[in-house]
Design a protein that fits this description.
One of its GO terms (molecular function) is glycerate kinase activity. The protein is built from 13 helices and 13 strands. It is α/β, with parallel strands linked by helices.
Length: 381
């Protein structure tokens, strides 16, 4: 009997890999002879590098890069087991969590470090990059990332500009002649789960600026800067710079990746599941087990468990979802391929206790689910 275990992380409690281990351990007490395939997954955001490295037997590359506020930070990216794909999280180099709350300022923040990670991967011969763009501290339109790869942003006097949100309004021209030529032969996929455009009421400044420390005055300055940036950028591409879905993601990194990297912008879970080849693993399985910290009505919006379920249903394989918490509207997930859902909480407890006991609770729940399946196999209609 083949059982595929493919959970996302339980945020602040268990990594996706540890979730796999706990579920497998619980099931193995009841089905010790089953063939288990563990594929820790992620939706393209935090944890994607760890999940994909674990799922493919890859490794982590560490290096120093320029942080969002110009300081040196220790960053990382992942290499898949075959050594052909780099998995980069923008947050590792340009993330909001790298900046103390009192120092957050998207007018000064730059995505330069993210470009350094991409350049380092190219130096290592990588020609396929998966870039997750969640959790950034920046609203620089991806200027920093592009600058690290050789793109030059000039003001009206032809002077090179520092790449940050405050200089978006000063961009008068963009020179691409020194852009890293290796990008032309590199397939880059951007994991993006928002459809916000670059500018406007749903744009990078208005929606994401306040999350990154922008005051109302900063939001207005950033919006005006992005409007100018868009006008200049439009001269380089046939893409509708202002309206492209996802262009405003990560402070405009979405549009920068599309224009400067010729990247494909896709839902994160789609990229991850293709990369770990979930479809091949699911074929012939008796059961698929997925999960994440919380399963509720929002799970149906494209989160990792629904992505796993959609693949499983292509092969008519039953799916069980396990979560720390089952929230409002959880029943909707049954319409999208998750046949049964379970919470691992044995009782009400303080949050700190719940997070600390996640591994034990997940093991116990997995064992109980397996036991129920075993009992069901012996019950006759």
């Amino acid at each position: 009997m083949k059982i595929v275990i493919a959970p996302d992380s339980f945020k602040e409690s268990l990594s996706a890999e540890k979730c796999c281990q706990a579920i497998k351990a619980g099931f193995s007490t009841i089905f010790p002879d089953a063939h288990y395939i563990c594929l820790p997954i992620a939706d393209g955001g935090e944890g994607t590098v760890d999940a994909m490295v674990a799922a493919t037997g890859g490794n982590i590359v560490t290096l120093e890069v320029c942080g969002p506020m110009g300081e040196t930070v220790n960053a990382f990216y992942g290499l898949t087991g075959d050594g052909k794909t780099a998995v980069i999280e923008m947050a590792a180099a340009s993330g909001l969590m790298l900046v103390a709350p009192e120092k957050r300022n998207p007018l000064l923040a730059s995505s330069f470090g993210t470009g350094e990670l991409i350049r380092h991967a190219l130096d290592n011969g990588i020609r396929h990059i998966i870039l997750g763009i969640g959790g950034s501290a920046t609203v620089d339109g991806g200027m920093g990332m592009a600058q690290a790869l050789g793109v030059r942003f000039l003001d009206a006097d032809g002077q090179v500009l520092a790449a940050n949100g405050g200089n978006l309004a000063r961009v008068a021209s963009i020179e691409m002649d020194e852009c890293d030529p290796r990008l032309a032969n590199c397939h880059i996929e951007v994991a993006c789960d928002v459809d916000n455009p670059l500018v406007g009421a749903r744009g990078a400044a208005a929606v994401f600026g306040p999350q990154k420390g922008a005051t109302p005055e900063m939001v207005e300055e950033l919006e005006q800067g992005l409007q100018n940036y868009a006008r200049v950028l439009q001269q380089l591409t046939e893409i509708n710079v202002c309206q492209m879905a996802g262009g405003g993601a990560a402070g405009g990194m979405g549009i920068a990746a599309a224009v400067f990297l010729n990247a494909d912008i896709k839902p994160g879970i789609e990229i991850v599941l293709n990369a770990v080849n979930l479809a091949q693993a699911v074929q012939g399985a008796a059961l698929v087990i997925t999960g994440e910290g919380r399963i509720d009505s929002q799970t149906a919006g494209g989160k990792a468990p629904l992505g796993v379920a959609s693949v499983a249903k292509q092969f008519n394989v039953p799916v069980i979802g396990i979560a720390g918490v089952l929230g409002d509207g959880v029943e909707v997930v049954h319409q999208y391929g998750i046949d049964a859902v379970f919470s691992i909480l044995p009782r009400l407890a303080p949050l700190a206790e719940v997070l600390a006991s996640g591994e034990t609770n997940l093991f116990n729940s997995a064992r109980n689910i397996a036991c129920a399946i075993k009992i069901g196999q012996g019950i006759k209609n």
